[in-house]
Design brief:
Blueprint (H helix, E strand, L loop, with lengths): L4 E2 L12 H9 L2 E5 L5 E5 L2 H8 L4 E4 L8 H13 L14 H10 L4 H5 L2 H18 L3 E2 H18 L6 H12 L5 H24 L5 H8 L4 H32 L1 H9 L4 H12 L8 E4 L3 E3 L2 E3 L4 E4 L1 H4 L34 H18 L4 E2 L22 E3 L1
Parallel strand pairs: 1-2, 3-9
Antiparallel strand pairs: 2-3, 4-6, 5-11, 6-9, 7-8, 10-11
Amino acid sequence: MTEPVDHPIERAGVLDPPPALRALAERAPISRLRFSDGRAGWLVTSYALGRALLVDNRFRVDPVTLPHGDPEMLEEIERIDTSMPESEGVLIRLHPPQHTRIRKAAARYFTVRAVREQQQAIERIVGDRLDAMAAAGGPIDLVTAFALPVSSFSICQQLGVSPEDRERFERPSAVLADPHLDAGQKRDALVAFYDYCRQVVAEKRASPRPDILSDLVEQGELSEDEIVGLARQLFEAGHETTAAQLSLGVLALLGDRARWERLRADPSQVGNAVEELLRYLSILQLGSFARTASEDVELGDVVIRAGETVVVSIPAANRDPGKFPDPDELDLGRNAAGHLAFGHGRHMCIGQHLARLELEVALRGLIERFPNLDLAVPLAEIRFLGGEHQMYGVEALPVAW
C-alpha cells in the first residue's frame, strides 16, 4: 500500500478495535499513515514489528505527532510544555542518557517486590470504597464511586499525599487528555498541575515522609525540576489509565455473565484474567507516542527514512493472531504474557506492576463483595470516549447488585 490512510477510529463493537484497523493488519504488517498535520508516515499493526520497533534505539519519541488532533494545538502545547523547566522530568518524552538516569532513580520503587509491599494499603483502599458502595446502595456509577477513587487514592498512597488532594491532579489530567479543549485551557491546566507538584515536592523537602518523592528529594540524584516533572507523570498516569482499564474490564466481564461467574467460582484466576483483559481491551487506542526515525531503518519489507514517523497500534498488535491465537476471543484462561498494553522497551510503563496489583485487588474485591453485580442500564445507553481520544474507556458505568 502506497497511498497513506487516516488512522481508523470508528468502532463497530464497543470492545473491539475499528474494523478498518483489522483490515489494514490483514493486508500488511505496516501501512502508510496520514498524520493530522498532513505528513505521511507509517502505522505498524504487527505484534512482532511493533515489539521490535519499541526497542530500537534508532527511533526517538515524537510527542508532537499524533494520528488525530489539531496539529497546531499539539505543537502549541508541546512548545508550552517544553518551555517549562519541569518537563525535564517527564519520562515519556525523554531520551537517553537523561531518560536512563531518571528512570533508574525511580524504578526501584516500582519493582514487583516494592509494589507487593503496598498490597495491604491497596486492599484497605479497595475495602473502604466497597464499604462506601454498600452504604450508598445501587445503582451507582462504578467510575466515580470505585474505579477512579481506587486508582487515585493508590497513587496518593505511593507518593505520600492526602487523598483530599485528588482534585489537584485529577482535574488538570482530565483537561490535558480532552481532545476537545483548546490550547489555552490546556496551558492553564499544565501550569496548575506543575504548581501543585512543585508544592508537594517542597513539602517533602521540608517534612520528609516514608514515600517515593521524599526519598527522591533526600537522595539528591535528581534536580528539583526533574522530581517535579516525574511527580506530574506519576500522578497523571497513575490514576487515569488504571481507572479506565478497571471500568472497561468490569464491563467486559459483565457483558458475558459466564465470565463473571467463572471468576466468582474461582477468584484465584483473577490475576490471569487481568492480563487477558489488558491484552484484549488495549485502552491506548491510538497506540503509544509516535516514534521518529533518526536514520534510515529497514522494518519488515519497508524502509523507513530518517525523519519519518511511525505509530505502533497497540490494539492491533495485541490482536495479532500470529502471537495470540483467536485474538478476538476474550479467554480468561489464556496465557497473555508478552502483550503490549504497557508498551515495551525503555518507555514501557514504569508503574505496570502497581497497575496490575490495583486491578487484581479491585476486581477480586468487587467479585467477592458484590457477586450479583450487573449493569444497571442497557449496553446501548453506556457512553464511550470517542476514537479521537488517546485512551479508550467509558464515561460512566452504572451498576447495581
